[in-house]
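quick one before i forget lol
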Amino acid sequence: MERAVELTKRGESFVMATVVWRQGPSSGQSGSRAIVTEDGELYGWIGGACAEPVLIREAKTVLKEGRARLIWLGQEKELEQLHVPEGVYTVPMNCQSEGALQIYVEPVQSAPRVTIVGRSPMALTLTSLLTALDWNADLIDLADFQSEMVEESSIVVVATQGHGDEDAVEIALPKKPVYLGVVASRKRGEAVFAYLRDRNFSEDALSTITLPAGVDLGHTSHREMAVSILAELVKLRAEGKFKKSSASTTRTSLPLLEPESVLDLVCGMTVDAVPANRPYVHEGVTYYFCAPGCRASFEKDPTSFINQEAKC
């Protein structure tokens, strides 16, 4: 729960998984909980080597769809004989440990945090609209605005409207916020860009600025302008533009690639094709396994498992 609070404060979405039913000898216990982050990191405990890969895989789907689901992990023969309620996702589990679990997986979508710089009527209206949507809105005077208030996940709207636009953008731009919008006309924007070029900001950096901010509604009032900016932010969030970028967390210039998911031919579980999952090379093909027992069974007679998969 402390991890959940920490992620919420950082504005990161995650999945909360709770074991609601258990049949021995599964290592998961009723009431056991775990968190899965957007990056696929798992904190807590819901079960052993067979349950965890399934949870991580399903958690990514739940986060993407934004809908909770109940997952029933059990032995294939038992699941075939049971009446499974509509909406419950069944996952055959053929691990040697046997047992069964029902896990309730629910998304926790953290509300975006928007920093609005300025005290114009538009800024006040936008703050009220964001609050009504349960977004986090910080209304800050330009004199109090500091670079420490901006991160790569920040959404910044400069609403000083001619009274320090350049200063506010110059403070925020080096931190590379996920969104930096300026409430200004295109003519006023040209002056802002000219100032920033004189301050040695690159064209690539300037291209990340949204100016004018908001959906183009033509000639609008201050309050209508706030609605147009809100509409743009809601649209960008729905498109996933405000999700944490994995590239921002890497220490190298190489992109972080998600590992390929493959099938453990022995037990039928989905595993990631990573060194930790006991790779075994047979006739030039690398196979991966959820547990040492599965790998050992495969080593004894690889052909039988490969042929079985081919028939399926």
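fyi The longest strand covers residues 14-23.
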